[in-house]
Fold this sequence. Notes:
By secondary structure, the chain is of the alpha/beta class. The protein folds into 2 domains: about 10-145, Glycogen Phosphorylase B (Rossmann fold, 3-Layer(aba) Sandwich); about 160-350, Glycogen Phosphorylase B (Rossmann fold), CATH 3.40.50.2000. About 35% of the residues lie in helices and about 15% in strands. Helix 3 (about 45-50) links the parallel strand 2 (about 40-45) and strand 3. The longest helix has 20 residues, at about 330-350.
Amino acid sequence: MKDREFERVLIVRTDRIGDVVLTLPMVLALHAKFPGLKISMLLRSYTQELVDGFTGLDSILKYDDGEKPKGFFTLLSELRQRRFDLVFIVHPTFRIALWMLLAGIPIRVGTGYRWYSFLFNRRVFEHRKTAEKHEAEYNLSLLRAIGCDNRSVPSITLSLSQAAVSAATQEAFRLGVGAGERLVILHPGSGGSARDWSAQNFGNLARTLKSDGCAVVVTGSASDRPLVDEVVMRSNGCAAVSAGRLSLKELAALIRSARLFVSNSTGPLHIAAAVGTPVIAFYPPIRECSPRRWGPLTEKKMVFTADNALCQRCKGGPCQGNDCMDQITVDRVVQAARRLLAEGETQIKS
């Protein structure tokens, strides 16, 4: 006889990289609370590699075929075959909620604030858009529906294969980063998830860090290549380009080898935090996008939030674009970078 009402649990998170990383504390909390529980995640294909080998995670279901979402009945059949007892719909849509009901999953945990929330039989009433706490904390709140109450967010560490580390080492060699050099990675894109610090600012930062003796690399996806090239151009060639060349795990390995990671609020920022690299992060003056909700889960950080009250375009009203981000000056970021780099060197020596 089972000592609990569930043995096979599914966590649904079918959005982006950072969202998936900030959902992983749920896996750790469930794994610690219920030893022997079989935990699976339903993810988009491009985020799968990121969680492969993660502690406590037994299997992964793909939401899509690599290009488009799977057919309704195709995924429904897969869900039924797995015979899950419990599902947490962390990223809810009507389609997903209906899938879980029709799949016959007995316990369905989700938000109580959607019109289709009647499809969930255990509901959590929290408005995430108010950004009263961190996204990882909101995710963990769902676990209270089954008596798993975490007062703190478990620390996550991404598993990196030797193949990923080797690929990152080869990429660093290709970029001319010498052994022992202080590598700083700049990631100027955000995929539209936030307001962006300008390419000019990133370029100016790269020039200063290069003059400080750092090796500077600008990363991004293949679609980010024009932006990455612009940053390098504005750096007067003081940075090297690595865009669209690495898988997510390989990128994570490259980031882990860096002394500092600087970016807007985006997925790779959370990867950097999860592999232990100090970070500098830029956030817009928008409540839903604030660091209170989306900040990196690390103590080794410096976070800058733009002030729209100082913005000539917004004048204290709703954020109108990237103009507010210019309130974060390069000089302030340089000071933060030097501080984090110095702290890192102190830790290495000790």
